[in-house]
Amino acid sequence: MFEALTERLSTVFDRIKKQGSLSEKDITTALREVRVALLEADVALEVARDFMKSVEEKAKGQSVTKSVTPGQQVIKIVHDELVTILSGADTAEPGLKIDSPPSPILMVGLQGSGKTTTSAKIAKSLKEKNNKKILMASLDTQRPAAMKQLEVLGNQIGIDTLPIVSGQDPVAIAKRAKQQATLGGYDVYILDTAGRLHIDLELMEQVNNVKKVTSPKETLLVVDSLTGQDAVNVATEFNAKLGISGVVLTRLDGDGRGGAALSMRAVTGKPIRFIGVGEKVDALEEFHAERVAGRILGMGDIVALVEKAQETIEAEQANRMMRRFQKGQFNMNDLKSQLEQMVKMGGMQSILSMMPGMGKMGKNLDSSGFDDQTIKRQIAIIQSMTRKERSNPIILQASRKKRISLGSGTEVSELNRLLKMHRQMADMMKKFGKGGNKGMLRGLVGQFMGKSPKISDIAPMHGSNLGASSSNSFGSLSGINLPNNLSGFGKKK
């Protein structure tokens, strides 16, 4: 997401960072390109105009032009203003207001925006991350098999759904869902309504009647981010006629421009609660303005990376591997575990997109010949080894290599590249055991891609340059700072 905008802004900022000093003319030229980038990304004209006015006022002061690092100062100003337009004046904690059970959540939106799937995603997230007991109910009497679809999704993720009773209207179903949620001791019940146009007065009246009988804690509008400014217009109209409490942007993983996300809060005044980043039921993220701003500017999202790791890594496994690494031990079983972990976390592309300064490297994956299929082939190669060979790969001679290649359906040359990568990573682990952990994470990524990245190419724009304050580190592997409130790395939620 935001690929096109990120690329344009990275080009502009890379240029100004190389300059030892900046004049007001330099800043004006750079900001003009930023404005064009925003408009090309389909950001609403008034939002882009207000954004650039605020940035320009702050960037042309002596604090920037006389600064030791003027380029970084400009980037910080742009970052802070992006956070402002993404979050508005809201200082409240992100997340849903579901404090008094049973809390109803009403899902509304156009046809085909992804309401049913999003309802299941939110239910799964609340169950796993917040330990809530959830009931889902379909109020969609318009679309064939809509109720059955929600029932099937509920079975897949282990969420209860309201039994289907044919012939009931949406208001009657909502009343029944409220009653069952109360009697069944549910914390939250999610009401998935039928898709409707905001100009369809009859259907809008229907959903207003549902609101009256349930008094939802949250009324979430689900909109497709790929529709660009139309998504913002839809949100504005739904808010005027229905009164929404927040927005869920779907298909953001396919939106290379990001105009809807950047314009939504500023135009509607309503917060973006979640973003959909894939078709799977776990492809849902809470919207955090600072993190999204970091991704747009190519700074990555290290917090999201750690959170994703927390969800997939068992604490015992993490501690065991850390003890081995500290002893300088790293065999093929360890490499296989690391590769499998990368797959669980969404693949190399997903990981790189969240690592500070690694965005450009992600674009080189295809040209380097390294992708997620390569990871799976590497896992297959290791699986074709005997236990002895995994523990001591130095014994792998020609005959053993030929057998392993045949067993995994790969070429011997690919096995040799894997062995080379293992040796390089093992050397890194030995250095780590001796305390030489600086730049470890970048080095590992470089080895996966078959090359050692230059620090100058992937220098992160974070930490002190963005005014971030933290004391924790990412497993002490990379020196990347994390917020103080992020604890328990390595613990599966």
Radius of gyration, taken over Cα atoms and rounded to an integer in Å: 25 Å
- By CATH reckoning, the class of the largest domain would read Alpha Beta
Q: How many domains make up the 3D coordinates?
A: 3
By CATH, the topology of the largest domain is Rossmann fold
Largest beta sheet: what is the strand line-up? 3-2-4-1-5-6-7-8
User: Please, what is the CATH homologous superfamily of the largest domain?
Assistant: P-loop containing nucleotide triphosphate hydrolases
The main β sheet shows up as: 8 strands, mixed
Architecture overview:
This protein is of the alpha/beta class. It has three domains: 3-87, SRP54, nucleotide-binding domain (Four Helix Bundle (Hemerythrin (Met), subunit A)); 103-288, Rossmann fold (3-Layer(aba) Sandwich); 302-482, 434 Repressor (Amino-terminal Domain) (Orthogonal Bundle). It is built from 23 helices and ten strands. It has helices at residues 3-17, 24-40, 45-59, 62-65, 70-87, 115-130, 146-157, 170-183, 201-214, 229-241, 259-268, 289-296, 302-312, 315-326, 332-344, 348-354, 359-363, 365-368, 372-383, 387-391, 398-408, 412-433, 440-448; strands spanning 103-109, 134-138, 160-161, 188-192, 218-224, 246-250, 272-276, 284-286, 472-473, 481-482. An eight-stranded mixed β-sheet has the order 3-2-4-1-5-6-7-8, with helices on both faces. A two-stranded antiparallel ribbon has the order 9-10. Strand 6 (246-250), helix 11 (259-268) and strand 7 form a beta-alpha-beta unit. Helix 2 (24-40) packs antiparallel against helix 3 (45-59), helix 3 (45-59) runs antiparallel to helix 5 and helix 15 (332-344) packs antiparallel against helix 19. The model is unreliable at 436-493 (pLDDT under 50).
